[in-house]
# Entry
Amino acid sequence: MKNQHTFMGIALSACVFGMCAASTFAADETLRSLAEKNNIYIGAILNSQWFSGQLPSNYEQIHKTQFNIVVAENEMKFDATEPSEGRFNYGNGDKMVKYAQQNGMRVRGHALAWHSQVPGWVNNYRNDKQKLLKVLKNHIQNVVGHWKGKVAEWDVVNEAISNNEPMWRSQSVWYQGIGPDFIDSAFVWTHAVDPDAELCYNDYNLEQGISPKAKAGFLLEQVKRWVKNGIPIHCVGSQTHVEDTTTDKHFIGSPDSLRALAKELAKLNIKLKITELDIGFKSGINVSKKDLERQGKTFREYLDIVLEEPNADTYLIWGVSDKWSWLGGLNRQKGLIYDDNLKPKPAFDSILVRLQTFEPPQDTTKQDTTKTDTTKTDTTKQDTSIAIPQFSSMKALSMRISGRTLFISGANTAKVEVFDMQGRPVFNGKCETGALELKGISEGVYMVRIREHSTSLVQKIAIK
Ligand code: 9MR
# Structure
């Protein structure tokens, strides 16, 4: 199974045009192995059906082969872990933690203080501030204490901001009963129980801009205040449930906006994690191959943020296969990277190829830059439709295209690879004369990577 899925990526990377050489990629590469090479976490939820053994065995096989971080779809939420007052249920969560340990995966805990999936008994105390404070504190102490050292990061507060205005969400038992203090308190209590856990604020629509009126703009102000006041928060989780741009007429989110948020958070030494990604199409429409390829491109653009921004480290998808996705409830479909039959979709290939071809800039590292470097070069102005970031590790290497001839200077023998905007290799060859005909490639925009020894240059070209 492991190789079968990788093979899809390789089949695509095998050259379809006459001039291509053998595949560039090793046969046993998976999203997971490539993510580890790139020093990021890539993951998917364990769907609720997994906990009751309702899923085919290849689901789990794919999950543990392709991913290195896991989160439970519903099983660590308040109603699941404390269904009646003071009686805790850790069975399903323990099952996932064991699975993660057996397979060397990181565990995300989701979620401690949230307005949804709160059991009925909590609502009995809706007008009793002191009691609600005790209920929330007791819940956090027990749940976080139970998984101390096993759950590496928690969504301490989930979806506390209003969708319509830059303010806290008022429809919440915690907000109504306690006021906004429940948020700061939840972080402090969680940190006191497990000081080693990474603590996140998690929400959706954070890819819709950082203006003061947008959710992320409001959140940024809160994060600044938390940091200033010493509230233990380490990360912002962007759920990133988005719709394909062509089917959502009111679409206002973008990878660029989320990247802008990541950059602002870096200045505060706070990480950005993509925690619940799906990119759905409207229910009921026919989804073509072209649509799926465009979807793959969007998946890749969000991945670019995690690969390129030093304070971003996690790319987590809210489901494995379209078959068990929650998206129908949102009037969306086909938002994940495996189809109903657990076959990888173009989005899978797009992610795989991007992980294969990414080369980190030499002067940045994932771990350290949030602490020291808040002035990293602004890349938001770059064209995010580019499959590979533009950077050069050796200035002397250069290229230019004229018609279909690629002129290269600064190299004696350059290895030349051309990728389409999905990140898929379409050409692979050598240039020893300073000029190379890019035969067999149709008109369009491509990324070219040239390499000689350890130096390389990546550049966008248009073939007309
Ligand atoms: O996928 C979850 C679905 O099974 C539940 O019915 C739903 C109930 O609220 O929650 C879904 O997960 C949500 C997550 O916990 C928080 N962000 C939005 C997710 C999708 O609704």
Residues 107 and 151 are 5 Å apart (CA to CA). The first helix runs from residue 2 to 13. The domain at 398-463 is CATH 2.60.40.3080 (Immunoglobulin-like). The chain has two domains: 14-357, 398-463.
